[in-house]
Amino acid sequence: MPSETALVVLLLAAVAGVLEGMAPQPRGSLLFPAFALAFAAFLLEGHPAATLVCAVGVAAGRAWAGRRRILPDGLSALAGIQAAALAYAVAGGLPHPLDGSSWVALSLFSPAFFLTVLVLRSGWSLATAKKVVLPLALLGLDLVGHLVLTAYGLLIALSYSLQGAFGGLLALVSLLAVTYLFRLQNRLRTRNSELAVLHEMASRLACSLRLATVFDAFILAAEELLRPGVVLLFLVQEPAEGLRLAAARGLPADMPAENGWVEAVRRLAEEGEKLLVPDLARHVVGHDHPPYRAFVIAPLHCEGALIGAVAAGRPDASGFQHADLNTLALLAEPLARAVRNALLYEETESQAITDPITGLYNYRYFRARLHEELRKARLQGSRVALLYLDLDRFKEYNDSLGHQAGDEILVQFAGLLRQSVRQTDIPARYGGDEFVVILPSTAKEEAADVARRLQAALGGRSFSVSGTAVRARLSSSYGISCFPDDAQDEDELIYAADRAMYRHK
Predict the structure, then answer these.
(1) Exposed/middle/buried for 456, CB within 10 Å: 0-12, 13-18, 19+?
(2) What is the pLDDT at residue 490?
(3) Distance of CA 218 to CAs 203, 223, 274, Å?
(4) Which of 41-55, 187-201, 460-474 has the highest mean pLDDT?
(5) pLDDT band at residue 1, thresholds of 50, 70 and 90?
(6) CB atoms near residue 260 (< 10 Å)
(7) 361: which DSSP letter?
(8) Are 335 and 218 in contact (CB under 8 A)?
(9) Dihedral sign computed on CA atoms, order 171, 176, 179, 185
């Protein structure tokens, strides 16, 4: 039959575990709710009992609540108990702490515990995250909370000593009730904060038809609720091709977007399920060291289909909890709809300005951009060159092989044209087998270099036709005009380039 002492210690350890699992603990908090019971155990049964109650309470409670960092937190709590007991002993405390002559020594117990935990947590933060994060507001709340726990520990011990088991149980029930009410209040405050952020995010998304602005609106919400170090957005390319990285925030400036740890996140995201990844290093292939180790990943589903995934990372291993995963999943729902709308809008916009066969810009967009480039050139006093291209003998291939084969050749030529011009140039299909390229801030001599580079590439290339052994060889005639040397408006510039092309033929 266990003794009364053993039953008291076991009861205090059990309640300590309940408190640790029940009490809300913000990220970076130094508070250990189990301290109240460990302090009561120290007052009633001494140092070994306090150590046992603290160890069992922290380990059991945090494991039950699904929190990470059980080992480092548990060790810092135990070290705090040892330091507090040592401070009590050095100050001349008696074996029975509730003896009236031990109050001065006893007053050192609680501060010694708190300061030890503060020093150890700061050292752990410095060793893992390379910086110490101790928000003053949170530190102040922790200090007040620790004083309340100290008072409750003393109340429990005194109630048990003066009123027996009934008095001790009343004090324990009171502590549990206060903790539960505090938990409900914290949940309500968290939900209100989430709803406010979601409402703000929804308002921003409603005004966003570009993927970049959609992602920016999501980033604002994620930073408010999750405080991530990096956020990655993956989108489905084609059902058979899986996900690709579409946007990122927080990648180191000198780090390429495609690397081993980003690839590991992408593979995990392709599972299409929400995931809590305590340590990404276990999933990285090769020796690439991930700068962000803890991740939460949520899929983006729209109309029953997977369209992508979003992932948030923090540098410290086990830096996220299941509550963070649920928060990300909550944000992912409106994000999925907004991403889908943005993609549809951009696809529609692209179809409106591109040629359906070659994928180059169409005539309508070419005219609009030429007008804009000439307007900017007038303001800046710069030049705009126009390259006009016509494929020689293309009609012969079109007539002999058919229009479908002709379209294939046009597509291949458009690809060659993209490769030959500069990134700042604007290639477009003018109509039929005629193409144009706008070259902003370019003189006629520089435009001629671009044309010669294209001619050289064209001369060494043959174009295939599906289902046949035909290898078509093409050449092109070109003409160049330049604003303001050859023309003063769009029509004159096009006419001048067209005339130059016919002279070249």
Answers:
(1) exposed
(2) 92
(3) 11, 9, 17
(4) 41-55
(5) very low
(6) 15
(7) B
(8) yes
(9) negative
Torsional sign, CA 43, 47, 48, 52:
positive
Provide the whole-model pTM.
Answer: 0.62
Token readout for 69 is 């960092």
Burial tier of 352 (Cβ tally within 10 Å: 0-12, 13-18, 19+): exposed
pLDDT in tens, 387-438: 999 988 888 887 777 878 888 889 999 999 999 898 899 999 999 899 999 9
How many C-beta neighbours within 10 Å does residue 309 have? 28
The Cβ-side half-sphere exposure at 42, using a 13 Å CA radius, reads 32
The residues pairing with 295 across neighbouring beta strands, listed in sequence order, are 277, 313
Contact yes or no for 24/48 (Cβ under 8 A): no
pLDDT at 127: 64
**Number of residues assigned to the chain:** 505
Using a 10 angstrom Cβ sphere, with 0-12 exposed, 13-18 middle and 19 or more buried, the burial of residue 413 is buried
The token pair that represents 414 in the structure block: 């458009």
97: helix, coil or strand?
A: coil
Question: SS3 for 431?
Answer: strand
Residue 482 tokens, joined: 């330049």
Residue written as tokens 């540098």? 315
